[in-house]
Amino acid sequence: MENIRIQDDLYNYVNGAWLETTVIPNDRPTTGGFADLDVDVEKTMRAELEDMIAKNTYPNDCLKNACKLYSAAIDVKRRKREGIRPALPALKRIEKLNTVADLNRHLKDFALDGMPLPFSFSIEPDMKNTDAKLLYLQGPSTILPDTTYYKPEMEQQKTALLGMWQNMVKAVLAKTRLSEEEQNAYIADAIAFDAVIAGIVKSSEEWSEYTKVYNIISMRKAVSALKPLKFSKLCKDLFGEAPAKLSIADPRFLDNFGKLFNEDTFVQYKHWAYINLLLSCCSLLSEELRDLGSSYRRALTGVAQMPCVEKFAYRLAAGTYSEPMGIYYGDKYFGQAAKADVVEMVKEIIETYKTRVAKNDFLDPATKDKAVLKLSTMKIKMGYPDKAEAIYDKLVFDENASLLTIVSTLQRIKREDDNAKFYAPVDHNKWAMPGHMVNACYDPTSNDITFPAAILQAPFYSIKQTRSQNLGGIGAVIGHEISHAFDNNGAAYDEHGNMNNWWTKKDRANFKAKTKAMIKEFEGIVLPAGPVNATLTVSENIADNGGMAVTLDIMSRMKGASFEEYFVNWAKVWCMKAKPEYEQLLLNVDVHGPHILRANMPPRNFPQWYDTFGVTKKDKMYIAPNKRVVIW
Ligand SMILES: [Zn+2]
Asked: Catalytic positions, please?
């Protein structure tokens, strides 16, 4: 590793020694950077819950319930004793279905209980009127991680993965009362049903253009396409009244629904649903079933061992009571001083962004004004919310029930609550991420950015780090999230979060050309795990580039700025070692590029990179000035 020069490979220069010696834990697909912070948060919060339980004192009822759920989940003896039994009533509900009419009779409860249906839907803001909600309809997910795996050129991988899936299902079905013959028939039917789904639903690359999920159709049209299912009645049962219109997120799916689901394919559906339901229950049954039921996913991500029962119990509790947990974490571990400091940084970055937009050379003044307006109205959610949403108070359960029953009950309460609010205005104060999550996001339909407390730590951010380091860490990430307001997707939404074209034709064409240039910059790159999909990752690559542009701008005006510290910390935050299987999976499904590219691609577009390290034509991290891409 000593031979690596920063001019050739920033990522390995900074992280190489670590990458060589670090071992990925057996129960995780990655280690380093984000994953390390996540492990720390998990350790901290798990100890907190265990402490509350030991002392039998709780800061509030929500955390008391979270602790109760944690205790129910770590009770392995009880789960072992019960075996598959807690799942039998739900499986029976599927077994009892003989015709489509039977399913129609139970459709409402199937939807409320999250039973597998031949379609799925979500309630999201109406992209053209984001104060109101809209139903977005789409197909079920496929067994393989993406539709591309079903293409002839992926035949080998497809066979291998489906084989692994079948082995898992066989082992799980053996725990039921089905005969071996029935088990085989169920599996064959599920695979046949899945093959049809794979042929009619979107790929990850198609989903990455999220403006394309907005395709308004009338309820009448949806009802006719979803026949023989009684969709309008289902909506009436769930929302009190069926909406007049909805969005079909995946039009190809709806057009072909008749091919997937009809009286003739009903048995296939039934067996597919049976297996899917059973698999979704596994993690809440015995440890043996939790292990079996996660084997396919683990094979896909290269994880040898499932997380221990304490980690599993913690994740279940933290996921179910996420907002109260995040508030507790934020309150205790993220100080007000740090919050004020980071908010200041965000404001400065937004102001700098405005100046950059005003100076930019490919937009008309009217379009620039609109972009600046979008920046001026952008809302900042920093750390954690003041108060958890009311729904968390409603998440109560009977401690004597099985873990599966407890979780099913809680999920149904959540769904009922969401459905009851279908006609209520969108709550833009809602937080997209809880305080203990190591992540950040931009929401185009609210025009807001969220930075949970958990990401506001070193190497991203620390009061103890230099300002240059913080700008190369959290600063560039803040700039990244802001840039999502202006990436190839975000650019379609206005300052209120409505999908609304605020661009002139000419500006739009210029922007498209720049987007293409960004795709070109990543095209043809092949890593040891496989080729990079430049189209799938373009919005994230635009955001990384924008985040770097705006923070380098601040650095250039800053007294005592160290560009070396900036770039080194930038490379540090992307430090990650992953299982090869997981790297392959991400290349196929993740809109984010591989970390080595996130570290090494953006710098080479900026003069500061060349000036700081004397990078020239002879170095690997050089690109000719006319090929450099800077959009924002
Ligand atoms: Zn992003």
From this structure: 481, 544
Residue 145 CA neighbour count, 13 Å, CB half: 19
Would you say residue 111 lies in a domain? Answer: yes
Orientation of helix 322-333 relative to helix 61-74, angle to 10°: 110
Cα 603 to middle of ligand 1, angstroms: 17
What is residue 159's three-state secondary structure? helix
Q: Tokens in use for 477? A: 């990430």
Say which amino acid occupies 318.
A
Answer whether residue 198 is part of any domain.
yes
Judge whether 324 and 63 are in contact, CB under 8 Å: yes
Distance between CA atoms of residues 615 and 618, nearest Å = 8
* Residue ranges of the chain whose pLDDT lies below 50: none
Please tell me the distance between residue 388's alpha carbon and the centre of ligand 1 in angstroms.
Answer: 25
Nearby residues of 255 by Cβ (< 8 Å), 6 or more positions away: 200, 225
Are 388 and 499 within one domain? yes
Q: How many domains does the chain contain in total?
A: 2
Give the Å distance between the CA of 332 and the centre of ligand 1.
Answer: 27
pLDDT for 366:
94
**pLDDT of res. 545:** 98
Query: Which CATH number fits the domain that encloses residue 261?
Result: 1.10.1380.10
Cα 541 to ligand 1 centroid, rounded to whole Å: 8
For residue 463, the model assigns a pLDDT of 87
Identify the CA nearest to 517 among candidates 605, 597, 595, 628.
628
**How far apart are the CA of 451 and the centre of ligand 1, in A?**
12
> Do both 114 and 250 map to the same domain?
yes
Residues 273 and 326 in one domain: no
**Is 292 among the domain residues?**
no
Structure tokens at 193: 């049903």
Q: Which two tokens mark 110? A: 């199937």
Task: Specify the CATH number for the domain of residue 514.
Answer: 3.40.390.10
441 CA distance to ligand 1 centroid (A)?
7
Closest CA to 212 of 253, 257, 157, 262: 253
Query: In this structure, how many other beta carbons lie within 10 angstroms of the beta carbon of residue 390?
Result: 8
- Say how many Å lie between the CA of residue 375 and the centre of ligand 1: 17
36 with 99, same domain? no
CA distance 153 to 162: 15
Domain that holds residue 141: 88-279
- Boundary (domain end) residue, out of 279, 297, 312: 279
pLDDT for position 2: 64
Nearest Cα residue to 302 out of 612, 4, 578? 578
CB contact at 8 A, 299 and 581: yes
Give yes or no: residues 470 and 578 share one domain: yes
Query: Do 31 and 128 belong together in one domain?
Result: no
Distance 327 CA to ligand 1 centre (A): 24
